[in-house]
Write a structure and sequence with these properties.
This protein is mostly beta strands. It is built from one helix and nine strands, in the order αβββββββββ. The termini are far apart.
């Protein structure tokens, strides 16, 4: 009987140690942020370029029209999904970049270069 009490006490202790983190201990920011700039070959910002982000799982596409400084941002992207991102400016496209689901950064910065020649 004494052995049973010791085993029970040990199990109780392990159970208490295995309690999941409370909400305040968890990272509550939703997903990750994809941000960057659209530039030409001389690193000049391309205002009014359109950035496309494609969810490779669902094929849903989000777009963003960059401002005068050429920057874009896509907040709250799922961290367990791969994304493809590219920019378009005056009919010309940048290379397509891939954001991996294995990239665990909360902020992913991708510069997109469009050859405007």
């Amino acid at each position: 009987m004494k052995t049973l009490k010791v085993v029970f006490a040990g199990l109780l202790t392990l159970t208490l140690l295995a309690v999941p983190l409370t909400a305040k201990d968890k990272d509550t920011t939703p997903g990750r942020l994809l941000t960057g700039k659209v530039v030409d070959r001389q690193d000049v910002a391309l205002s009014n370029a359109v950035v496309y982000v494609t969810d490779t799982r669902t094929h849903a596409v989000k777009t963003y029209i960059v401002g005068p400084d050429g920057s874009y941002r896509f907040p709250a992207l799922a961290s367990n999904v791969e994304y493809e991102v590219y920019a378009q400016f005056n009919g010309k496209m940048s290379d397509t970049k891939r954001v991996s689901q294995f990239d665990d950064r909360k902020v992913v910065i991708v510069q997109l270069r469009v050859d405007t020649r």
